[in-house]
Amino acid sequence: MAASPVPNLPSGYVFRPKVRELIEHYLVPKALGGYVIPGMVAEGVDVFSATPDALPFSRNHRKDHGEVWCYFFGAHPAAQRATVPAPGGRWFPYGIEKAYSGANGVGEAVAFQRRFRYHVMWQGGGSDGSGVWLSTPWLMTEFRLNKGATAFRCAQPGPKANMDCVVRKVFTKPAVPPPPARSSDDESTGSNYPSADEEGGYSGEELPTKRSRFC
User: Fold this and answer.
1) 171 and 70 in contact (C-beta within 8 Å)?
2) What is the rounded CA–CA span in Å between residue 130 and residue 120?
3) DSSP for 139-160?
């Protein structure tokens, strides 16, 4: 894996964007070849070339009770494949593909979310994903754009544009429920900030403004 290390963030800082923020401020600019704040979403890391626990996670993104997470850019989506092989196991998709649309959740989808869980082979596992596989705590959420959406048709991509670009969040959930969030005077890590995992929400309320900027 040709992985550039994920920078360790300043003490007390964690990166847990909402889905809306992840799509608008990271995935869209990256796909259009624009400026993306460096160091927040890792680049040059193939998440399918290593076991999940071997991926480069910032020390600030390792919490109590086994919780860990990191965001990675990818050159193209894996969502259309039945399973995705990785060392020691396979990533199996689960659930339905979720669409993120316009205001009030209606209108044309501008992005999609697909969920995966990492499994290890128990017995009879074949290269096609057949056999018996055991699920692990490792999860992944992949976000990709609807590149045919009206919002992007009149965009002016930069020379490094790649509309197939994706953002993936690889993570585990805490083994036990975390304690209640303390006040900002006690803790400044933002650990209670809604994250872009499979339970994250995206209302799309700012999408009409964003569309006008695309055009």
Assistant:
1) yes
2) 12
3) EEEEEEE-TTSHHHHT----TT
Q: What is this structure's pTM? A: 0.76
Compute the distance between CA of residue 83 and CA of residue 91 in angstroms, rounded to an integer.
6
Contacts of 49 (CB under 8 A, 6+ apart): 1, 86, 87
Give, as one character, the DSSP assignment of residue 206: T
- Please report where in the chains the tokens 């074949």 appear, as a residue: 126
Cross-strand bridge partners of residue 145 = 111
- Residue 158 to residues 28, 34, 36, Cα–Cα distance (Å): 12, 6, 13
Q: Which amino acid is at 35?
A: Y
Average pLDDT along the chain, 215 residues, taken 10 residues at a time: 54 84 93 90 94 91 88 87 85 92 73 95 65 90 92 81 95 79 43 44 36 33
